[in-house]
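>> Question from a student workshop board

For tomorrow's exercise we were told to take the sequence and the ligand below, predict the bound structure, and bring the output to class. My setup keeps failing. Could a helper post the expected result so I can at least see what it should look like? The ligand is fe (ii) ion.
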Amino acid sequence: MSLSRVIELAEAVAQGKTSRDELAKCMSDFVEEKLCIDEHLCWSAEGYTRKQVYCSENVEVVITCFQGNQESPPHDHGGSWGVVVPYQGSISNKFFERIEGNKVRPTGMTVQKPGEVLILEKEDIHQVTANTCADHGNRHASIHCYFPPIPTMNQFVVEEEALRKK
Ligand SMILES: [Fe+2]
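>> Workshop helper replied:
Here is what the output should look like for this input. Compare the format with yours to find the bug.
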């Protein structure tokens, strides 16, 4: 098991030669085996970081690093779908539905622990918050595969009126 095995399987998924589940299991095993990705890890007090470790016309593999309590804005993935597995620390994913324009309202939330798989469908809008991570110096990291490489991430605004009505 290695990061190159994850990349190989991701390419196989893109070409319809293996299943999403196979890739998800491989990513989860990668985390279980605590394989070293130190060379790709980089945290910043300014906000979360995103490092692309592989990209072809079919797929990109990305590693994100958050410090505890850092968060992304609500965003989509420009029509790409993906598989996300936390490597260390847990993350909260808030999901949203689109109301109009760039306005969204929340629909639910999941918490992901290391090794747990989240599939993001191409229409999904979410917001990631890194939970406090006492055992890793409050540092979180996740491994992502996106199909095809994300062309652009659109950002959204949470509709306050919709929040009040809930
Ligand atoms: Fe995302």
